[in-house]
Specification:
This protein is an alpha/beta fold. It is built from 10 helices and 5 strands.
Amino acid sequence: MEWDGAVNAWHIAGSVFRMGRREWLTEAGWQQAYDGGVRTVVDLRNPEERRRRDSDPSVSAETMAAFDVVLSPTEDPHDSEFRKLCVPYLNDPAHYADNARIFPDRLAGVFKAVAAGRGGVVIHCSAGRDRSGMIAAMLQDLAGAGEEAIVRGYERAVRGINEHHRVSTVPHPHERYLPEDVLAPLLEMRLESLRRFVRHVKTRDFLRHNGITDRELTAILAKLGR
């Protein structure tokens, strides 16, 4: 998506989108998102991650008042089992199934936020890669996108944030730009893990089992253009 300032912003399906941290968008970028129908922002980050940086653009309260921002973390980063599996954070589809198993109510909460969202919905985490990638994969699965479309979406996100690391003036505490000879084999393993997750999770059944009502499912599918 060509929203000014946005990092790793992509269309998922229908009127649902994904991206990296919302603080990267400029005033013009928010206006572009608004003009594209977005009215709801679902933030998947944990409380300690939600903050402006000195390098972030200033955006007026009036601009942000046009959007509903829903805080819906996909995890509890202090959970002992999660910490053993995902150090320093969720950064590999190999652990998506564990996230869904440990925190099914939190994942269901994200889908409830999508169902209830006003207008178009943009989902974001920090990098726009794994937490948003996990939810995007489930949304695409629900929309009937097929495995290859799902893995292409994840590959775009991996390459998108990798390119951001190459040009960013703010170094990431744990990640650096990876050249293609390093990135390609890592990506191959992660894409296979993503395929296994999609086959395992059975999104529609998962959502019904974890409290998503028929009405909410219908609302989600409508937003996905189904």
